[in-house]
Amino acid sequence: MVVQNTFIIRCVKCTSKYARMFKNVFGSGFLVRTAHVFLTWVITLILFVHDTDLRREEEAGRLTLPILFVLLVLLSVLLYFAVSLMDPGFVLADDCDLQFALGIAEEQQDMIPQIKPFRQRRCGHCLLQQPMRSKHCQTCQHCVRRYDHHCPWIENCVGERNHRWFVLYLAVQFVVLLWGLHMAWSGFSDAATWQVWLKSNSMLLVTCAVVALLAFTVLLLLGSHLYLVSLNTTTWEFMSRHRISYLKHCGVDENPFDRGTLRNLWSFFCVWSTVVWEQAYFRQGCDSA
């Protein structure tokens, strides 16, 4: 009977996963994703059409630089779609189902009742128990495990499952933008007057301005996320600490999930198993009300 129920739970989750993916592809985010991909390849085309280092290398028969640039742009687009369409960690079942579905060991299951003095909140929208560090997203209409934020750029939440991929995407995108800015700068040509210069370089000038603005934005995002990851906190926890029940009773500089910068970074980028945050919280000895 238990095996049958587990099979049904997994089938429902699998069906819901593909239904959400279909909705993500053709839902409200379709225009955002289309615009992102269109802008990416238009800028790439401009860099090849004008007399930049990319075009000069191509015309000289040295294809290594152009091929590497195109492959890096393609990688950034693929990462964008992966983060955009990935399940960020939607909560689809109560804790008992999650423990079984995620393969939590019996020893860990025995530990969970001991941390029940912390009362789990039942979401008023999903009607499911919210694991610690999860939050309901009004846009996605789901609770998300280790919720960070809902990103309109990718039209998806950033949570437990896709946060590391989001940071990796930002890093690759930043490299692409810096490289593109350098290539655009290499294409500017000299002219006798400012009027002639502006006329001949207007397209590259606009491209430089757009790429520089995007690079600055991505740099801010990447820097802020790496900083928060090094502290093992999320954007939501950082911004709304005073309203979160499991944090507002801790000290101002106290983070019950912080294990040190190196261990935080290692756990974020290299540990793929699902974490029972209630255990980590009470293991640090931070009392909750």
From TrEMBL:
Record GO biological process: protein targeting to membrane
Entry EC no(s): 2.3.1.225
Annotated Palmitoyltransferase DHHC domain residues: 119-240
Protein name: Palmitoyltransferase
Record field: catalytic activity: L-cysteinyl-[protein] + hexadecanoyl-CoA = S-hexadecanoyl-L-cysteinyl-[protein] + CoA
Sample GO molecular function, one term: protein-cysteine S-palmitoyltransferase activity
Record remark on domains: The DHHC domain is required for palmitoyltransferase activity.
Entry membrane topology: Multi-pass membrane protein
GO cellular component: endoplasmic reticulum; Golgi apparatus
Pfam families documented for this protein: DHHC (PF01529)
Domain of life: Eukaryota
Subcellular location per the Swiss-Prot or TrEMBL entry: Endomembrane system
PANTHER family: PALMITOYLTRANSFERASE ZDHHC12, ZINC FINGER DHHC DOMAIN CONTAINING PROTEIN
Organism name: Ictalurus punctatus (Channel catfish)
